[in-house]
Amino acid sequence: MQSRIEKNNLKSIVYPSDGNYFGKWSEGEKIAQSGKGATWSDKNEDVNGGSCYNCHQLDKKEIAYGNIGPSLYNYGKLRGNSEAVVKYTWGKLYNAKAFNACSAMPRFGHFKLLTENQIRDLMALLFDPQSPVNQ
Ligand code: HEC
User: Fold this and answer.
1) pTM of full prediction above 0.90
2) On the chain, which terminus has fewer CB atoms closer than 10 Å, C or N?
3) pLDDT in tens, 77-112
4) Ligand 1 mean position, distance from CA 103 (Å)
5) Hey, whose CA ends up nearest to atom 7 of ligand 1?
6) In this structure, what DSSP letter does residue 34 have?
7) Domains of the chain with bracketed CATH
């Protein structure tokens, strides 16, 4: 059952339309910090954030982070940037349930919480050698 749920979620992932997975890590850091969006006080036209620090460590200098999810410090350094890793990470951000049917991580692409460009910026935050995540 669980694997069927994951398989269906995997099929629904939309990969970047132009094959470009990476934006700007500095923008990604702002999105990771921002908890805006999807609450009663947010307006429809407001830009959502990712709340990544609510659950993950990313930049080591940021000491306020939750630990529901694993630390993502040194993510790119540890994982490398093979096509498999890059596609997996995009997919995880797009729809976390594709890899864990019971994931607590929000499905940022699936529910259109974040745009394709915002996901690109978060990908850069995770993978760019210049990003504080990999320092
Ligand atoms: C509510 C908590 C929560 C939030 C918010 C969250 N995550 Fe996660 N994340 C998790 C959990 C839990 C996992 C572990 C795998 C699973 O259960 O899905 C995870 C896994 C991941 C992974 C895979 C790690 C690995 O080693 O394979 C990445 C990458 C990731 N998250 C990035 C992000 C980014 C970037 C954001 C912000 C846009 C974010 N997460 C927001 C909970 C969260």
Assistant:
1) yes
2) N
3) 999 999 999 999 999 999 999 999 999 999 999 999
4) 8
5) 105
6) -
7) 2-39+46-134 (1.10.760.10)
Integer-rounded Cα radius of gyration of the chain? 14
Nearest CA to ligand 1 atom 27: 89
Structure tokens at 93: 């951000």
Cα separation, 113 vs 39, in Å, equals 11
Amino acid (1-letter code) at residue 33? Q
Tokens for 5, please give them: 């749920």
Taking alpha carbons only, the member of 13, 8, 12, 30 closest to residue 118 is 30
Distance 56 CA to ligand 1 centre (A): 7
* Selection from 78, 52, 47 nearest residue 64 by Cα: 52
Long-range contacts of 62-71 (CB under 8 A, 24+ apart): 62/33, 68/104, 69/104, 69/105
> Has residue 1 got a pLDDT over 70?
no
CA of 43 to the centre of ligand 1 (A): 25
Q: Which helix (H) or strand (E) holds 91?
A: helix 83-94
